């Protein structure tokens, strides 16, 4: 009888121990999984540079890299902006291959404006009499206005010329080089010379460069050297 009671007590205790062991095992596994996720995230942040410390370090490195590309004049302008600590109205002047465009960027705090300039070392900046900041950049493209209404043709002096509107309106945007008209009339395929006289529509930078390249073969000798320096 005593032996039977002992067996029952042992079985009851064994079930209790087994439940405790199982609960301990589940808790341990959960803790291990949580720790693994945290460790993995931290490792990924470290490797990819997405953690706060890494992001701050990356920002410092990038700013140093940008500063190395800045001209002395631009560095002085950035120092002036930072030292004043003033918020300013900022304008952008964009110089295209054909045409210019101005735009208002809005109000910038001193540090935000300095950061913008550091990130664009090819831009230049100045302050006008009102204390407004004017930024200037060069874009190797045609301005939106030029894309809408520019023509390549022959100017009054026989030069390859870019016009606003058809050449007949004589609104010259830019002249390039003197053309050998006689050679063009005799050697160009039929209709091409007349097409140039009427005006070749220019809608993008590819057409612009293509027309200049095509007719550069007919530049008179004394303008070839100048043309080679510019294009």
UniProtKB/TrEMBL annotation:
<feature type="domain" description="Bypass of forespore C C-terminal">
    <location>
        <begin position="141"/>
        <end position="216"/>
    </location>
</feature>
<protein>
    <submittedName>
        <fullName>BofC C-terminal domain-containing protein</fullName>
    </submittedName>
</protein>
<dbReference type="Pfam" id="PF08955">
    <property type="entry name" value="BofC_C"/>
</dbReference>
<dbReference type="InterPro" id="IPR038117">
    <property type="entry name" value="BofC_C_sf"/>
</dbReference>
<keyword id="KW-0472">Membrane</keyword>
<dbReference type="InterPro" id="IPR015050">
    <property type="entry name" value="BofC_C"/>
</dbReference>
<keyword id="KW-1133">Transmembrane helix</keyword>
<feature type="transmembrane region" description="Helical">
    <location>
        <begin position="20"/>
        <end position="38"/>
    </location>
</feature>
<keyword id="KW-0812">Transmembrane</keyword>
């Amino acid at each position: 009888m005593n032996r039977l009671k002992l067996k029952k007590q042992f079985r009851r205790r064994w079930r209790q121990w087994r439940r405790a062991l199982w609960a301990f095992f589940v808790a341990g596994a959960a803790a291990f999984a949580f720790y693994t996720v945290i460790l993995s995230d931290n490792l990924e942040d470290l490797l990819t540079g997405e953690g706060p410390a890494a992001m701050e370090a990356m920002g410092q490195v990038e700013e140093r890299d940008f500063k190395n590309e800045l001209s002395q004049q631009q560095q002085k302008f950035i120092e002036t902006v930072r030292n004043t600590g003033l918020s300013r109205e900022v304008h952008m002047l964009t110089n295209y291959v054909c045409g210019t465009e101005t735009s208002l960027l809005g109000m910038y705090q001193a540090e935000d404006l300095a950061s913008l300039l550091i990130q664009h070392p090819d831009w230049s900046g100045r302050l006008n009499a009102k204390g407004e900041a004017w930024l200037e950049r060069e874009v190797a493209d045609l301005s939106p206005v030029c894309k809408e209404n520019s023509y390549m043709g022959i100017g009054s002096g026989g030069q390859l010329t870019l016009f606003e509107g058809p050449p007949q309106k004589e609104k010259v945007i830019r002249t390039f080089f003197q053309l050998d008209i006689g050679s063009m009339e005799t050697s160009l395929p039929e209709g091409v010379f007349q097409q140039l006289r009427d005006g070749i529509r220019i809608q993008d930078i590819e057409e612009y460069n293509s027309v200049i390249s095509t007719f550069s073969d007919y530049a008179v000798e004394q303008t070839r050297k100048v043309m080679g320096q510019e294009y």
